[in-house]
Amino acid sequence: MTGFTITIDGPAAAGKGTLSKAVAAHFGFAHLDTGLLYRAVGAKVIAGQDAVEAAQSLDPSDLDDDSLRTPDVAQAASKVAVIPEVRAALVEFQRSFAARAGGAVLDGRDCGTVICPDAAVKLFVTASAEVRAKRRFAELSGKGIEDSFETVLADVKARDARDMERATAPLVAAQDALTIDTSDLTIEDAIAAAVAAIEAAR
Ligand code: C5P
């Protein structure tokens, strides 16, 4: 199955990561969390590097770092993500990943709209800001990061606003995307809905 691409876009903490990993495992496809690219650039900016230079010199090994999962890096990621030159520097890597033989799942914000407009299946995964903040709060608490729920909710909302309002590649569902609202779904139900949509397109 050469170049069969599935895109899964949506706002922060909507369940894209869980869903993408499950879908990739189900179909035996490779998975790219494109948010990690922006997080890796954001982490380099926190360390003092220029954002555009960091994006242009990014190495796949930079993505393999647990410290990219912190709230500070998430905010830095959404700030560098508004810079058109940063986004441009990351396009090629994402497109070649998407085109790999054997199928690929890409999750992020603009995978179905900008990176892979011809993807075989496009999903837009969302949930209310409160539900997403609750999930992120539980995830961070599990890692020993002790932010208050209110802080996590404010972070999620700030990141949503920045992602939706930016001029280049804003967060928006592709016209031909299937939206899955996970607010009231179990993980199993969300996975079943995604798998059914993909099966129908194969
Ligand atoms: O998905 P994740 O929360 O790891 O993404 C971190 C940030 O990277 C997002 O808030 C967004 O600003 C940016 N991003 C993006 N385009 C993508 C993936 C992530 O702008 N395809």
Structure description:
- The protein is α/β, with parallel strands linked by helices and 202 residues long.
- It has two domains: 1-29 and 106-202, P-loop containing nucleotide triphosphate hydrolases (Rossmann fold, 3-Layer(aba) Sandwich); 34-101, no CATH class.
- It has nine helices and five strands.
- It has a five-stranded parallel β-sheet, sandwiched between helices.
- The longest helix has 17 residues, at 149-165.
- It starts with a strand and ends with a helix.
- Residues 12, 34-35, 38-39, 74, 77-78, 81, 108-111, 159, 163 line the site of cytidine-5'-monophosphate (C5P).
Per DSSP E runs of 2 or more residues, the count of β-strands stands at: 5
Largest sheet: 5 strands, parallel
Query: What Rg, in angstroms, do the CA atoms define?
Result: 16 Å
In CATH, what is the homologous superfamily of the largest domain?
Answer: P-loop containing nucleotide triphosphate hydrolases
N-to-C SSE series? EHEHHHHEHEHHEH
Helix content: 40-55%
- Indicate the structural class: alpha/beta
Q: Name the poorly predicted regions.
A: none
